[in-house]
């Protein structure tokens, strides 16, 4: 039997972005409900690598770089908070990331990147190929054109991180409903006052769409052109009791992350394939060849499973954060593309500030909904 539910803030989408917002709101004693059409974290959160790559992922200085660095700095404190509240460990690993050059053009681009990142106050160290081998071992990595070492870029295990956020948010009063699909918006006098679900309407003072790759589709019901679209990423997991290196190895189209549970994550493709999230042999074969070419020792590791998910891409490569012009009561936190886990900490914080009427701790103008959403 359907029934009506009421809450102060309703978050649609139970991935790492939606859950991080719920956690921050729960800390502020804001009544919050998260609904997820599947299981929590079952979409791009489950499929992601978990890199906190504020430097390795960014090609140039700018708003995205600044947002990433700001968010990365929040993780040590966030880890301690989650451990204290619920005892869950996000499995933060801090050996750093080697961004490997595979040709001379790549080398020069990385040396240029080192200069501007150091000028921005970040640590970035260059290692020639022979120096890299002394650290990683000749049997671990193939010949390279050197590598940029980023000691402050780290990683977590996505689902361990999500579990900590969910358990902590619940402990602080947030509520979660899985297998609860939104079927439409509730509107009154032009304002968004909740959503319809198959289990009945949910009324809310504020509705946040943290719906990843599906955000653009949901906006169409309100005649909103939200510039977020799906980009498929395919990856694979390998088993290893002792990963060949503690470092994350990153190069064009391929990154290799050893996990604390003994697995090795190898990712990832970028494919414009609509909402088809199925893994396919060709993409995985290409990824496998590239990974083994970079790190030959991977060839002997047992294969666990393929992974595929839909990242929320945006037209300009920046996330969409904040209220929606012309749709009172509606907010968006989406479009994080490859950096959902990295940006989850700052997104949770600034969306809590937006939703509680506070001054935001970072300038959201570059990420505003108004910059690209046509009503």
Automatic annotation (TrEMBL):
One GO CC term, this protein: cytoplasm
Organism: Tumebacillus permanentifrigoris
Pathway: Cofactor biosynthesis; thiamine diphosphate biosynthesis
An example Gene Ontology molecular-function term: flavin adenine dinucleotide binding
EC number(s) on file: 1.4.3.19
The FAD dependent oxidoreductase domain, residue ranges: 8-352
A Pfam family the protein falls into: DAO
Gene Ontology BP annotations: thiamine biosynthetic process; thiamine diphosphate biosynthetic process
InterPro entries documented for this protein: FAD-dep_OxRdtase, FAD/NAD-bd_sf, Gly_oxidase_ThiO
Protein name: glycine oxidase
């Amino acid at each position: 039997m359907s029934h009506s539910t009421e809450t102060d803030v309703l978050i649609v989408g139970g991935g790492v972005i939606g859950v991080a917002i719920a956690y921050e709101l729960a800390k502020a004693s804001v009544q919050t409900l998260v609904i997820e059409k599947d299981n929590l974290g079952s979409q791009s959160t489950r499929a992601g690598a978990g890199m906190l790559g504020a430097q390795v992922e960014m090609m140039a200085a700018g708003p995205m770089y600044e947002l990433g660095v700001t968010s990365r700095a929040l993780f040590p404190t966030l880890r301690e908070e989650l451990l204290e509240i619920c005892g869950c460990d996000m499995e933060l690993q801090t050996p750093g990331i080697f961004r490997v050059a595979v040709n001379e053009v790549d080398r020069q681009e990385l040396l240029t990147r080192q200069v501007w990142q150091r000028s921005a106050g970040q640590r970035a160290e260059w290692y020639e190929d022979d120096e890299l081998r002394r650290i990683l071992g000749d049997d671990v990595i193939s010949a390279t054109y050197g590598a940029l070492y980023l000691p402050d870029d780290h990683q977590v295990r996505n689902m361990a991180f999500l579990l900590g956020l969910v358990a902590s948010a619940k402990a602080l009063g947030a509520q979660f409903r899985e297998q609860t699909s939104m079927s439409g918006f509730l509107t009154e006098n032009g304002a968004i006052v909740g959503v319809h679900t198959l289990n009945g309407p949910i009324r809310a003072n504020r509705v946040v769409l943290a719906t990843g790759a599906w955000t653009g589709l949901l906006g169409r019901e309100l005649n909103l052109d939200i510039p977020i679209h799906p980009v498929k990423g395919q990856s694979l997991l390998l088993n290893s009791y002792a990963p060949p290196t503690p470092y994350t190895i990153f190069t064009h189209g391929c990154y290799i992350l050893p996990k604390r549970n003994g697995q090795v994550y190898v990712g990832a493709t970028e494919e414009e394939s609509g909402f088809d999230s199925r893994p396919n042999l060709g993409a995985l074969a290409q990824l496998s060849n590239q990974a083994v070419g970079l790190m030959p020792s991977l060839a002997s590791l047992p294969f666990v499973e393929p992974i595929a998910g839909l990242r929320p891409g945006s037209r300009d490569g920046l996330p969409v954060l904040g209220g929606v012009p012309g749709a009172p009561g509606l907010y968006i936190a989406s479009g994080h593309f490859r950096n959902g886990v990295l940006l989850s900490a700052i997104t949770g914080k600034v969306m809590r500030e937006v939703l509680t009427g506070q001054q935001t701790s970072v300038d959201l103008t570059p990420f505003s909904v108004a910059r690209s959403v046509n009503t």
